[in-house]
Amino acid sequence: MSTPTLEKSAASAESEAPAHLITVTFRVRRFNPEISDQATWQDFQLEIDPKERVLDGLHKIKWDHDGTLTFRRSCAHGICGSDAMRINGKNRLACKTLIKDINPSKPITVEPIKGLTVLKDLVVDMEPFFQAYRDVMPFLITKGNEPTRERLQSAEDRERFDDTTKCILCAACTSSCPVFWNDGQYFGPAAIVNAHRFIFDSRDEAGEQRLEILNDKDGVWRCRTTFNCTDACPRGIEVTKAIQEVKRALITRRF
Amino acid sequence: MSAETTTPATETVSLYDVDNPAPVIAPPRARTKKTPKSTRTNFELYGWLFMRLSGVVLVVLVLGHLLIQLVLDGGVSKIGFAFVAGRWASPFWQAWDLVMLWLAMLHGANGLRTVINDYAERPKTRFWLKNLLYAATVFTVLLGTLVIFTFDPNIR
Ligand code: SF4
Ligand code: FES
C-alpha cells in the first residue's frame, strides 16, 4: 500500500543520511476491523538514531509514512502507562525502550499486548483490566470520623508498601501472565499489586475485605509464580513478590 | 439508478467497511462487571496449602518407594506377587502405600484441575474434563484402598 513511497523516502534518506542514523525495520502488527477481520504484519524501514526510543520510531511511521497507524501514548516519559506493547515478544513501554537495547539489526516486532481485545492496530480494550482493578477497591477506606489533620505514618510503615505505590497501571504485567491469557477472570498481577498497596498500608482499615476478595477462586491462588509480571513491569516493581506477600497474609490470617 | 450500480462495486473490494466492521477478537472469558462471582470459601487456599504440604511428604514417600522397589535388594527383578504379599503383611507398609496412594492421587488430580482451569477455554470443555478427572481419581483411590485393605496373600 504505502510501499512505493516508503522505498522512495528510504532511498533518498540513505544518500544524505548522517552517520549516526541506522536503518531499522519495524514489523508492526496491524488490525483494522473496518478493512479486514485478519491481523497482519507490516514492515516499515526507518532511518533512525539508535539512541531514540521505539515510541519515536512509531511516531516517525505515523507522521511520515502511514497516518493510519494507531497506538496509545500520552506522556511519552514512562509516567502515564498508556503505551505498553509487546516489543520483540516482551511487554514493555514503547517510550522507555531504546532501539539500541533491542538488537536493531533484526526487525523489531511491535504487537498489541496479549489477552485483551484488540480494537485497532496497537490499541486494546482495557476495560476488563480496569474492572479487575476496581474490584479490589483501590482507595483508602477508614472508619470513624475524619481526622482534622493528615493521617500520620511512620517511615517504616510507609516502607512496607513502597514498592507497590509505583504502579502506573500500564497492564504490562497482567497481559504478560499466561493464566490471564487463558482465563480473563483471573484478577491479574496489576490488581493484586494495587490491592497490596492498601492491604499493607497502616492507615487503611479494609485490608480484611480486600484479602477476602483475593482469597476467592480467581484471586491470588491462581498465580503460578511464572515471574512474567516481574520481568515485564517497566517500574521495576517486584510483582510476583507482592503476590506472594498477599498469599502469606492470607495464610497467616487463617492459621 | 446510477448510485445503485456503484454500491456493489465498492462492496467487492472489501467485506468490511466503516459501518460494517469485522468482529473484534475477544480474549477467552473476559472479566465483566458481573463476573467472576464471589464464592467466599477457603477452598483455593486449602488447595494451595495441600499442594505444598503433600508435595513435601510425597518427596519422602515416593523416593523411598522407588528406592525399595527399583534399587535395593536386586532391583526391579525381585518384584513379584510374593514380594508384594510379604510387604503388605506389615501394617507399616500398608500405611505407607495407603498414604502415598491418597496423597499422590489428590496431589496429581488437583494439579490437573489447575491445568484444566488454566487451559480449557470453553465452560463446557472445562466441566467435562474436570468430571472425567474426578471420576478417574475417585475410581483409582477407592480401588487402591480396597486392594490394600482386602489383600489376600493366599488367593487362588
Ligand atoms: S505493576 Fe508494573 S507492569 Fe503491572 S500495571 Fe503496574 S506498572 Fe504496569
Ligand atoms: S507514553 Fe506515558 S508511559 Fe509511555
From TrEMBL, chain A:
Cofactor needs: [2Fe-2S] cluster; [4Fe-4S] cluster; [3Fe-4S] cluster
Catalytic reaction annotation: a menaquinone + succinate = a menaquinol + fumarate
EC number of this enzyme: 1.3.5.1
Signal peptide range in chain numbering: none
Cofactor: binding details: Binds 1 [2Fe-2S] cluster.
Domain of life, source organism: Bacteria
The UniProt record lists the keyword Translocase: no
Enzyme class: oxidoreductase
Protein's pathway: Carbohydrate metabolism; tricarboxylic acid cycle
Pfam family, one: Fer4_8
Domain 2Fe-2S ferredoxin-type residues, every copy: 22-116
This protein's UniProt keywords: 2Fe-2S, 3Fe-4S, 4Fe-4S, Iron, Iron-sulfur, Metal-binding, Oxidoreductase, Tricarboxylic acid cycle
Domain 4Fe-4S ferredoxin-type residues, every copy: 157-179
Coiled-coil residue spans: none
A GO biological-process term: respiratory electron transport chain
GO MF, any single term: electron transfer activity
Protein family per UniProt: Belongs to the succinate dehydrogenase/fumarate reductase iron-sulfur protein family.
Protein name, as recorded: Fumarate reductase iron-sulfur subunit
Native source organism of the sequence: Streptomyces eurocidicus (Streptoverticillium eurocidicus)
From TrEMBL, chain B:
Protein location: Membrane
SUPFAM superfamilies referenced in this protein's UniProt entry, alphabetically: Fumarate reductase respiratory complex transmembrane subunits (SSF81343)
CDD domains: SQR_TypeA_SdhD_like (cd03500)
Keywords linked to the UniProt accession: Heme, Iron, Membrane, Metal-binding, Transmembrane, Transmembrane helix
Cellular component, GO, one term: membrane
Protein's name according to its UniProt entry: Succinate dehydrogenase
Pfam families for this protein: Sdh_cyt
Annotated transmembrane regions: 49-72, 92-112, 132-151
Lineage: Bacteria, Bacillati, Actinomycetota, Actinomycetes, Kitasatosporales
Gene3D superfamilies, per the entry: Fumarate reductase/succinate dehydrogenase, transmembrane subunit (1.20.1300.10)
MF terms in GO: metal ion binding
UniProt cross-references to InterPro entries, sorted A to Z: SQR/QFR_C/D (IPR034804), SuccDH_FuR_B_TM-su (IPR000701)
